[in-house]
Design goal:
The protein is α/β, with parallel strands linked by helices and about 240 residues long. It is about 35% helix and about 20% strand. It is globular. The two termini are about 30 Å apart. The relative contact order is 0.16.
Length: about 240
Amino acid sequence: MKPDPVYRRVVLKLSGEAFAGDGGFGIEPAVVGSIAQEVAEAVELGVAVAVVVGGGNILRGGTAAAGGVDRVNADYMGMLATVINGLALQDALEQSGVPTRVQTAIWMQQLAEPYIRRRATRHLEKGRVVIFAGGTGNPYFSTDTTAALRAMEMDAEAILMAKQVDGVYDSDPKSNPHAVRFDRLTYLDVLNRGLQVMDSTAITLCMDNKLPIVVFDLMRTGNVRRVICGEHIGTVVDGGD
């Protein structure tokens, strides 16, 4: 018997680095296939899944700007990188038999649909996965903020922040073996402590709209399903009510 999901509609946030595997750059097909399988398991449970993808495995706008590229141009370059990742994930999902649509905030009709809220909602209602690429379509906004914005527009019940670490820590667990992992945090805890969950704009949007965030380890097989079914893994960020 299939477990009963506690969330019926979610936005899954994937960093660009997740697509690169251990290589740190580019796209590793086996890794993308593994991510697609995780999403497919959620869809099999009857959950509506939208995905927001980053582009840091190809180009990060902030890094390019720091290297001397005009900030606005750098951010647009980063948005285009997310479209490459979105198309790669779409291909992997459809090879797994999951109908998928990519919608972009920047018009590129030969590659993907333009972002239209009602159309995206309809896709989700029909059991299709919707991948949101191109960020918000505006410079100076991160894909974290995109995830928060799209989650609210889609009436999602939670944002699933897929990381390469098993939750939120008080310091970097890779450099501090004594780092402490939090099971639960409030939005204000994250903002006041400067914890690396999402950027402050995204956290504030979630706080204002009481949208919970679950931070978990993407690298462990089955974790997307576990989170959706309410298993207590990773860190939950909410209002603390």
